[in-house]
Each structure stands twice: as C-alpha cells, then as structure tokens.
Amino acid sequence: MFSILFRHADFIAINKPPGIGVHQDKDSDGLTRLLAAQLGVERVWLVHRLDKPTSGVLLFALNEQAASQLAQQFAAKTIRKTYLALSDRKPSKKQGWIKGGMAKARRGAWKLTREMENPAVTQFHSISIEAGLRLFVLQPYTGKTHQLRVAMKSIGSPILGDNLYGGTQAARLFLHAWQLSFDFNDQHHHITAPLDESWPKQIQPFLADKAKSYE
Questions:
Q1: Which residues contact 123 (CB under 8 A, 6 or more apart)?
Q2: Quick check: 173 and 207 in contact, CB under 8 A?
Q3: pLDDT for res 185
Q4: Neighbours of 59 (CB within 10 A)
Q5: Are 181 and 80 in contact (CB under 8 A)?
Q6: What predicted TM-score, i.e. pTM, was given to this entire model?
Q7: Which residues are CB-neighbours of 134 under 8 A, at least 6 positions away?
Q8: Rg of the chain in Å (alpha carbons)
Q9: What is the average per-residue pLDDT within 63-86?
C-alpha cells in the first residue's frame, strides 16, 4: 500500500518508497498499475518521474484532461520541486547554483559539461548536520536525467548511497523529493512528503523551521 499524501478529484500524490520503479519491468507490475489497483480505479496517469532509488512526492492524474494539464506544467517548469539529499563529503561551495550541459558517460551514468546551450540548472544550499554529514536542499529548475545526482557529484559531494556516482555505500540512495508546489485550476497546492526512519532524526528541527521557505 502506498502512502497517500493528498487526493484531489483530478490528481493524487503519494510518498514513493525507494526501490520501486515507475514503469513495469521484469521484476514488477509498475507503479501505475499497483496504484490504480489500490485506488480501485481503471487507470492513473503518470505526469512526471522519480528514479527508482529516489523516494518522495510523486504525482498522478486521475483523468486524461488533468494528465495533459499537469504534464504541460512540468514541461513549462512552473511546478516548483524541492529535494533533500545527504552526503558525507564537504562540497566545494556550501550554496549557490550548479549549471551545465548533460552528456552520457559510462555504465549508464551522465556527466556535467561546460555546454550552456540547454543546461541543467539546480539551486542548492547545505547545512552541517553532524561531523561528516551534510544535508542538501536542492531545487532543480530543469528536469534532466540524473540531474541532481550529477550536480552533487560535480561539487564534490556525491549523494550517500549513490554507487553510480561515487557516493559512499549506504543502505539506500539518500535522495528524497520533499515538496511540490503548483497551481491547478486557480488553486495553489503545496505537498510535502515526510522522511522515513532511515533518515537521521536530527534533520527534523531544520525541516520544521525551513519548510515554509520553499512553498
């Protein structure tokens, strides 16, 4: 059973667990089919994506018209996305912007380039949680494949558990789609996905203090 964060007549948001792919593959029926079965509806429409190891807010439309409307908003970059990540390595800068082109590398990975014609753009800031552990708040303004994972590697702080990009081995990839903010039919919606118990508890006071800043 998926944890439902918000249900509207036209869409639904769940808190996706890590390790579940959004598409059907040889190991699963695919998230859309599982969610439709849980809701008792014939179909749900996936309007954006999260990598299989990434957790957090995932939005689905409940009808074709809403699917088109929400997909257009994601394409137009009018939906504000905020992610959380952990790294055990100090970044080259504590906050700022990460911009650059994206090119395929080896083993299914991507790399950041100096090409700025159609760049991946991410704003971030970070805070030290404890010795050797830093929390990153990431806001992507584009939606490139592996954008945040590549961005974190580029500043010397690969995400904890991200084996593909040189992160320290951990029980999971510590990347979480924390918040989505958007307008739909003249109403503003702000959806937050709480962290599961795998995340350090000392993060919670920071999140409680800063959550409103990202609406």
A1: 96, 97, 98, 138, 139, 141
A2: no
A3: 94
A4: 25
A5: yes
A6: 0.93
A7: 86, 87, 88, 89, 90, 91, 126, 127, 128, 157
A8: 17
A9: 96
Q: Is 88 a catalytic residue?
A: no
Give the dihedral sign, CA 106/111/114/115: positive
Q: Both tokens of residue 14?
A: 């769940």
Is there a contact between 159 and 174 (Cβ–Cβ < 8 Å)?
A: yes
- Burial class (CB within 10 angstroms; exposed 0-12, middle 13-18, buried 19+) of 74: middle
- For 82-123, the pLDDT digits (tens) are 999 999 999 999 999 999 999 999 888 999 999 888 899 999
Question: Using CA atoms, how far apart are residues 23 and 151, in angstroms rounded to an integer?
Answer: 25
Q: 10-36 b/e with 16+ CB inside 10 Å = b?
A: ebbbbbbebebbbeeeeeeeebbebbb
Please give the helix or strand (H or E) that residue 73 lies within, else none.
helix 64-76
- Residue with the bigger pLDDT between 106 and 158: it is 158
User: Does pLDDT of 16 surpass 90?
Assistant: yes
Here the tokens at position 143 are 């939606």
Per residue in 22-63, pLDDT (tens digit) is 865 544 458 899 999 999 999 999 999 999 999 999 999 999
Mean pLDDT of the chain: 92
Token couple for 194: 């709480």
Q: Which of 10, 51, 88, 196 is catalytic?
A: 51
